[in-house]
Every structure is written in structure tokens, then in C-alpha cells.
Design brief:
single chain, 4-stranded antiparallel beta sheet, 6 helices, 27% strand
Length: 230
């Protein structure tokens, strides 16, 4: 790999910015000054910037407790994105596994491993997602059977896949769905004439949100947790 590309991949700098650093003598290669951006380097080489070793980041798997008021896109002119909550190198290489609405809180997975995220978000895998919903009006017990049979959403041509509804209180429910249509949970309750006033995702597949993570906090997944979706 070229030295300037290695510096780019480790720091998030552009190729021209990395080349300028190298030509200015800011980079040490195996303890020696190297001013050649095109210098080829090996895995065993040690590259220092400001006396700190540069290392390529491997695949990253992040669990974030998403707060309300953040969008899951990489850029938005009107709202902060979830990526500003991360203290990670090369955040532009990361993407969210699916999306949560602006005002929805809870478990959000973020990674730079596209194959891994596809296994979770692809409709054919039917990965279960559990949401806690607070509603404007009481939910009738009959909603359990309606959701289990599938609901016709406004503007759709097919029923939703069977979903599991657990009524916690008249206006609080747990809903587990196995697909990810646009604003699906809100639209499912709207089809019953109700309105979601607050929504929080508690679980994705076998993975549950840590109770120890405050809103806006995140942690890396363990190897065991990553393997749950392989």
C-alpha cells in the first residue's frame, strides 16, 4: 500500500492532505523521515504521526443508545446526525444498520461491515425488532390478533408480516416486527386509529439495549454479539 493511502485510511485525511503532511516531513516510517507519498509500506512497518503510531481500523460494530433529535443519515442540513455522537476515526466509513426516525430513541447498530449489516437489514432475513410504544389512546385487546394477522397500511398493497403485540398498559405496548417498512410501527397503530406519541427500540434480533447506556452513549459489540448475526 502507498504511504499516502495508508495515512488517509488511518486519519480520514484526503489524499492531497496526506501527501502534504508527508512532504512536509511530518511522517516517520520505521523511525526514519519519509517524504515520499508513493513509498510502498508493508504490514510490519511502523508509521508515526506526531509521535503516535497510525493503525488501520478493522471492522467496527457499534451499539448506540440513540437520543431523539438525531437523524440516521450521514448529512442533514437541519438536524444533527447520529455520527456526531461517535468519537471514532474515519466516521465517514460507517453506516447505520437500518434507521430510526428523528424522534425515535433506542438501540441503533452502526458498522463499516456492509455484509454484516445486510444480514440484519435485508427483508429476506426477517430480523425481529422490538419497540416500546406509548400511545395517545388505549389499545383494544383485539389489536393483538389484528397485528398477528397483518395490517394493511395506508398506501400499501400488501399486509404487514405477522407482528407480536404485548399490551403493558392501556397506552403502552411492546411490538415486535419482522420487516422495516417506512415508519412502520407508527403506521400500524395509525391503521387502528391510534397515534404513537413516543417510540423506543429495545431489541434487534437477540441483542437488547444495555440499561447502563445513557442516551447518546455507545459501546463496541463483543465478538460473541457480532457472531449472533453471522
Amino acid at each position: 500500500m502507498r504511504l499516502d493511502k495508508f495515512v488517509c485510511d488511518c486519519t480520514g485525511l484526503t489524499r492531497s492532505q496526506a501527501g502534504k503532511l508527508i512532504r512536509q516531513g511530518e511522517i516517520l516510517l520505521n523511525g526514519l523521515l519519509c517524504k515520499q507519498p508513493a513509498q510502498q509500506i508493508k504490514d510490519s512497518d511502523v508509521v508515526l504521526l506526531d509521535d503516535e503510531p497510525l493503525r488501520l481500523t478493522g471492522p467496527r460494530y457499534i451499539l448506540l443508545h440513540k437520543p431523539a433529535g438525531y437523524v440516521c443519515s450521514t448529512d442533514d442540513p437541519d438536524h444533527n446526525t447520529v455520527f456526531v455522537l461517535l468519537d471514532e476515526p474515519n466516521p465517514d466509513k460507517l453506516h447505520t444498520v437500518g434507521r430510526l426516525d428523528l424522534d425515535t430513541t433506542g438501540l441503533l447498530l452502526i458498522t463499516d461491515d456492509g455484509q454484516w449489516s445486510h444480514k440484519i437489514s435485508s427483508p429476506k432475513h426477517e430480523c425481529a425488532k422490538t419497540y416500546r410504544a406509548w400511545l395517545a389512546d388505549p389499545v383494544e385487546d383485539s389489536a393483538i390478533a389484528q397485528f398477528a394477522e397483518g395490517v394493511m397500511l395506508r398506501g400499501e398493497k400488501t399486509l404487514t408480516k405477522p407482528a407480536q403485540l404485548e399490551i403493558i398498559s392501556p397506552t403502552e405496548c411492546l411490538l415486535t416486527i419482522h420487516e422495516g417498512r417506512y415508519h412502520q410501527v407508527k403506521r400500524m397503530f395509525a391503521a387502528l386509529g391510534n397515534k404513537v406519541i413516543r417510540l423506543h427500540r429495545e431489541r434487534v434480533g437477540p441483542l437488547t439495549l444495555d440499561s447502563s447506556l445513557a442516551e447518546g452513549e455507545y459501546r463496541q459489540l463483543t465478538a460473541e454479539e457480532i457472531s449472533l448475526f453471522n
